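Thought: the user wants the 3D structure for the chain below. I'll pass the sequence to the structure tool as-is, report back what it returns, then summarize two notable features.
Action: structure_tool
Action Input:
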Amino acid sequence: MNDDHPSTLRQRILELLLEETLTVRDLSKALGASEREVLHHLPYVARSAAHSRRFLIIPALCLNCGFEFKKRDRLTTPGKCPLCRSPRISPPAFHVSSSS
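Observation:
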């Protein structure tokens, strides 16, 4: 892996998130990168997007009871719901809006 790869990958993540709302898995498939690698770069994309755009997080959702993980800061999918303890959780999704 060469030194310019991370910034290139971050730019491609940003470009994809400007076009549509995607999960880490969606980004991983679109970029041909591992989910772990995408998760590593997302905080940097969010920080760089904050200069002129808005980085939006659509929270994870419990598929069993409907609990929404609104106050969660981590970008990963929660292990289980704090209300019903179900592991059936939809992952958070991300989008970058072009206006601030």
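Final Answer: Structure generated. The longest helix spans residues 5-19. Strands lie at 22-23, 54-58, 61-62, 89-90, 93-97.
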